[in-house]
Write a structure and sequence with these properties.
Blueprint: E1 4-9, E2 12-17, E3 23-25, H1 31-34, E4 39-47, H2 51-62, E5 71-74, E6 93-96, H3 98-106, H4 110-116, E7 119-121, E8 123-128, E9 134-138, E10 146-150, H5 151-162, E11 168-171, E12 176-181, E13 186-190, E14 195-203, H6 210-214, E15 219-235, E16 243-249, E17 252-258, E18 263-271, H7 272-280, H8 283-293, H9 302-321, E19 343-346, E20 350-359, E21 363-364, E22 367-369, E23 375-376, H10 384-404, H11 412-440, H12 447-466, H13 468-479
Parallel strand pairs: 4-5, 4-14, 5-11, 8-16, 14-22
Antiparallel strand pairs: 1-2, 2-3, 6-10, 7-10, 8-9, 12-13, 13-14, 15-18, 15-19, 15-20, 16-17, 17-18, 20-23, 21-22
């Protein structure tokens, strides 16, 4: 039988076995890494501390149906308890639709935004830079077409609610290092070597999603050869600023979104070379280019303009000729072409390259993806974060149905239900937005090809503006 002798010295505790040359020294052992780290267990883990990830965590931790669940949020950012709006609006904003606003209201985040600031869109005016064709939307029943809110403010409104959620733990300044998927659970290793086991992992870690890559989910993607420049612009005069303006140029769309009676946010998408030149300009030169872009006739196609004039005359004839024509066609008296307010100064410019990304699958074993990790689109329709919030709503509804049906969290039937529902909603919208950008970005087309394309666009846009059923359809699409 071996006898153990213990000796204490200044370097630590030494253990030796009598009649043996084996000994252990505590000074030579790294206890922290030699023994397994404590494992924590959660029902659902949300990875990603952006707007979509925070909204997902908030809705899961506040809805009564999920109160019994243990939720974790992995956020790469640091905890920020106090938020104060800057004097001038930040240049990164979202155009939130009614569905997104209702989501924020349901998790008590909208009140905080209202206490700070937001822009209201009562009217949208969109026109083709190659012809005189345009379409205008006006809000009805005192309902906004959109709300323009700074990204930072949306994020702050979501984060402030998380600290009051008893069933939620937030791991700030952390990220997922690796994970292993099994039929029963998903084992997650964090950057700080903490191990977590969950029944379901929800990935919301952006368009370059590490989670999507580690799950071996492929994507369809391409670059647009365009860069979007964003900046907060000061108007020449204070005015009732409730109109969103967008003009389709041959090099990409330029838009001006209302923030308040003195400022608007610019979103200018253009070809890479042109965008780089715009970024190198002085503020004064850049402001001049912006004002010019909204009125310049450089892209005008005379055939397209003549087609538009002919169509307006023809629609006026049909409106007066057929019974109750005013129920089908708008009046030409309402067709007043207006221009956006003049800009006098620009705030700091930011930019980001534009691309299309769509994930072939939205789910994997014990994993569901949301937000930019499954879809990234062109900003011309302002639908990026709205689609992400749509993912949150859809996943929440599928999870709720799954629980009420008595199924296990993270079951394959639940995951496929979410994927099927959401893909039907998202793919058509992505194809539509991508097609619009391709249809209107025609700087590389020769005149032989460009002229019929401009004519087709003119016909489509004019009918969409004058034919009431078509117009109502597009208004509903813009609001929802």
């Amino acid at each position: 039988m071996l006898k153990l002798k213990t000796k204490i010295c200044s370097k630590g505790i030494h253990y030796s076995v009598l009649n043996s040359r084996i000994f252990f020294s505590s000074s030579n052992i790294d206890f922290e890494h030699s023994f397994p780290q404590k494992k924590e267990y959660y029902d659902i883990v949300v990875a990603g501390g952006g707007m979509v990830g925070n909204a997902m965590a908030a809705i899961l931790s506040q809805d009564n149906i999920f109160k019994h669940l243990k939720i974790a949020l992995i956020d790469t950012g640091s905890e920020k308890k106090n938020f104060k709006s800057s004097e001038i609006h930040q240049n990164q904003v979202c155009a939130l639709n009614t569905t997104s606003i209702n989501l924020l209201k349901s998790i008590d985040s909208w009140d905080f935004i209202q206490q700070n600031r937001f822009g209201e869109v009562h009217c949208m005016h969109v026109w083709d830079g190659s012809s005189d064709a345009f379409i205008s939307f006006n809000s009805e029943n005192e309902q906004n077409l959109a709300w323009i809110v700074e990204n930072e403010l949306i994020l702050a409104s979501l984060k402030r609610k998380l600290s009051n959620c008893e069933n939620l733990k937030v791991f700030y300044s952390n990220e997922i290092k690796d994970f292993t998927q099994t039929d029963q659970a998903i084992d997650i290793e964090l950057k700080n070597n903490l191990n977590i086991t969950a029944k379901l992992l929800i990935g919301s870690d952006g368009s370059d999603s590490l989670i999507r890559k580690k799950a071996n989910i492929d994507t369809i993607k391409w670059n647009y050869d365009q860069i979007a420049i964003v900046a907060t612009m000061k108007l020449s005069n204070k005015t009732q600023n409730f109109t969103a303006w967008q003009r389709f140029l041959s090099t990409g769309p330029i838009a001006l979104l209302p923030l308040n009676d003195e400022y608007s946010c610019l979103v200018w998408s253009s070809k890479n070379k042109m965008a780089k030149n715009l970024l190198e300009l002085s503020d004064e030169e850049f402001v001049h280019k912006v004002n010019q872009a909204f009125v310049s006739e450089d892209f005008k196609n005379e055939f397209g303009s003549s087609i538009e004039s002919f169509l307006q005359t023809g629609i006026d004839f049909l409106r007066n000729a057929i019974p109750r024509g005013d129920n089908f066609f708008t009046s030409s008296e309402k067709l007043v072409r207006i221009l956006p307010p003049k800009i006098i100064s620009s705030g700091p410019r930011s930019f980001f390259p534009l691309s299309f990304i769509h994930s072939n699958n939205y789910v994997s074993k014990r994993l569901a993806l949301i937000g930019d990790s499954i879809h990234k689109i062109h900003p011309l329709a302002g639908q990026g974060v709205n689609m992400g919030f749509g993912d949150v709503i859809c996943l929440k509804e599928c999870l709720k149905h799954n629980i009420l049906s008595g199924n296990e969290i993270g079951s394959w039937s639940f995951l496929k239900d979410y994927e099927s529902r959401r893909q039907k909603q998202a793919i058509s919208k992505m194809i539509g937005i991508d097609s619009l950008n391709r249809l209107y970005t025609d700087d590389n087309y020769n005149n032989l090809l460009k002229t019929p394309i401009v004519a087709a666009r003119t016909i489509g846009l004019t009918f969409s503006n004058r034919v009431i059923p078509f117009k109502n359809f597009f208004i509903n699409q813009a609001i929802k």
